[in-house]
Amino acid sequence: MPAANNPIPLRVNRQNVIHVVRTSIAAVVSLLIARLFKLPEAYWAAITTLVVMQSSLGAALTVSWQRFAGSAIGAAAGALFATYFGSNTAMFGVGIFVMGIVCAALRLDKAAYRFAGITLAIIMLFAHSAPAWIVAVHRFIEVALGIAVGLALTAVWPEDPADFDAHAR
């Protein structure tokens, strides 16, 4: 343990700073694009970009497909469940269960199921002024935009120069 008069040294290196700059730029770009298209919950694009930016390009490409598919499933289920059952807790549980079975049947992984569940929760459990299907479409577009911006920035400006060299070949 460090002595009281000897503070813990900071360990910020060049790689940390590059990651922070890339992530900040990507999050702001996705937020601005979502706002440009007047998406009502533009912050979901930025949140999704933050999630995507935590991976290398290869890992981000693989898991982003799962996130995209899960968001589509969650948006579709959210539109149906919210339209017919509103914010019903029991039906929310049924929806989560059904999406888990659908994701498993489609051989999607836990990332897809996680995004499906998050999307369903946002559509079913938050109060919205628009019809459920419009909320679902907006949510899907916001997430897809966040994924696209995160992947694009990761491809154009890889965190590890070796990722760029391997991708360029």
Describe it for me?
- It is a single chain.
- This protein is 76% helix and 0% strand.
- By secondary structure, it is mostly helical.
- It has one domain (16-164).
- It is elongated.
- It is built from seven helices and no strands.
Blueprint (SSEs and pairs):
Blueprint: H1 14-36, H2 43-52, H3 57-85, H4 89-105, H5 110-125, H6 132-156, H7 161-168
Task: State the main characteristics.
169 residues, mainly alpha, 7 helices, 0% strand, disordered C terminus
Quick rundown:
The chain has 169 residues and is mainly α. The protein has helices at 14-36, 43-52, 57-85, 89-105, 110-125, 132-156, 161-168. The radius of gyration is 19 Å and the shape is elongated.
The Rg value, from CA coordinates, equals 19 Å
Mean pLDDT: 89
Number of extended strands: 0
Unreliable spans are 163-169
- Terminal CA distance reads 47 Å
Number of domains: 1
Strand content: under 5%
Number of DSSP helices? 7
Structural class: mainly alpha
Biggest sheet layout: none
Helix content: over 70%
N-to-C SSE string, H for helix and E for strand: HHHHHHH
